[in-house]
Design goal:
Number of helices: 3
Shape: elongated
Number of strands: 0
Strand content: under 5%
Largest sheet: none
Helix content: 40-55%
Number of domains: 1
Structural class: mainly alpha
């Protein structure tokens, strides 16, 4: 049985930085992560 190949593009479209920027709650999430010292705009490259 083969393992599932994760689609990072699909994951980022659903829950990535730009997906969060589209809603007001998501923008609040990004800013709170930024306040905690996390760089929120980093995506994982395959």
């Amino acid at each position: 049985m083969q393992n599932h190949r994760k689609s990072y593009a699909k994951r980022n479209r659903k829950s990535g930085f730009l997906a969060r920027q589209r809603t007001s709650k998501g923008r609040a999430t990004n800013s709170s992560k930024r306040r905690a010292g996390r760089n929120v705009n980093i995506t994982k490259k395959v």
